[in-house]
Amino acid sequence: MPFRAILETLLATHSPAVRAAIFCDSEGEKVAAEPGDLDPYEVDVLGASMALPAMNMKNGTRARVVFHDQVVWIIVVDLGCYLVVSCAPGQDLACRHDFPGVAEALVAHM
User: Which residues contact 76 (CB under 8 A, 6 or more apart)?
Assistant: First the structure.
């Protein structure tokens, strides 16, 4: 499945704003990830930690969570699956318009 290629394209298109992207199933398990400049373990934990908020969101919705060192977007894709995108602080707003297209690409390959 080309999930990782979709995530790689997101990072390549929006570097250095996008730091990592994780596609998770409805149980918070990583399906595919592109860790970018984050530690792979951190990426796994970040993806899993967004399962609870994602479960409470409708398909196609997104939420923005601001931390001191990153901005995290949660985009609910379909069937409870969700995309988590870690961005550099203050640089995430320019790339948010591409998230629906990325979600559509992921759904097309599910």
Answer: 54, 57, 58, 59, 60, 61, 62, 82
Say how far apart CA 28 and CA 47 lie, in whole Å: 7
CA of residue 27 relative to chain centroid, distance: 15
Tell me the DSSP string of 57-106.
S-TT-EEEEE-SS-EEEEEEEETTEEEEEEE-TT-STTTGGGHHHHHHHH
- The pTM is what? 0.93
Beta bridge mates, 72: 65, 86
Instruction: Give 50-109 pLDDT, tens digit per residue.
Output: 999 999 999 989 999 999 999 999 999 988 899 999 999 988 888 888 888 999 999 988
